[in-house]
Amino acid sequence: MDLGLKGKWALVCGASKGLGYACAASLAQEGVNLVIAARTRQALNESRDRIAAVSGVEVIAVDADVTTDDGRQRVVQAAPRIDILVTNAGGPPVGDFRKFSQDDWMRALASNMLAPIELIRMTVDAMIDRGFGRIVNITSSAVKAPVDVLCLSNGSRSGLTGFAAGLARQVARHNVTLNNLLPGKFDTDRLRSNNAQRAHAAGIAPELEAQRMIQTIPAGRFGMPMEFGQACAFLCSAQAAYITGQNLLIDGGAYPGTF
């Protein structure tokens, strides 16, 4: 299927590795030129080179912290235009909410709620003027089924979800869509790090902790990042113009509810 994206420009945040990288690579396969952003320059440049070599599209790497005004300005200005925006940020620390300070909450909100909203504010009007725009926020399955130790993530990402739901209905008539992708357990560095922490706390090997988690997933495995990236590419496609304001949970069936 031709997704109708050749020649478009996308800004993908957190694209040096993991799910952000997978989204960038999948869009590049469809002929989308990229601005990829992350804070770690070496990893980001390596990702830029890999994507460009395989896809042949233009890939601009900008090492920046998009929780800052300067970082957001630099990534937005790096592209001639932004037809597609994929927001993404690493999850905040896990723990008991009693141990988190107001500063901890403000950092979580800045990263997982306010920075995406600001990036949307900076790009959505131009999308409306051109009559095409696709915005995808990478959030978390915890938005659908909150996790007790992820209180910072539960709160900040749910705030972004509520904001996105309202804006999506305002801009839909302009062929601008806004959706959220909610990843479950994907085989990423973040998952392996969290598994190692849980295993250490439980006094077991990381491999045993991984197997314990897999047993809770009906698919019987962790997700592969490129599966996630392909879902992102479809939500950005011409064919997905009638899908907006949605929260797409990709978790191998782990969430047990009907809705």
Automatic annotation (TrEMBL):
<protein>
    <submittedName>
        <fullName>SDR family oxidoreductase</fullName>
    </submittedName>
</protein>
<dbReference type="InterPro" id="IPR050259">
    <property type="entry name" value="SDR"/>
</dbReference>
<dbReference type="Pfam" id="PF00106">
    <property type="entry name" value="adh_short"/>
</dbReference>
<comment type="similarity">
    <text>Belongs to the short-chain dehydrogenases/reductases (SDR) family.</text>
</comment>
<dbReference type="InterPro" id="IPR002347">
    <property type="entry name" value="SDR_fam"/>
</dbReference>
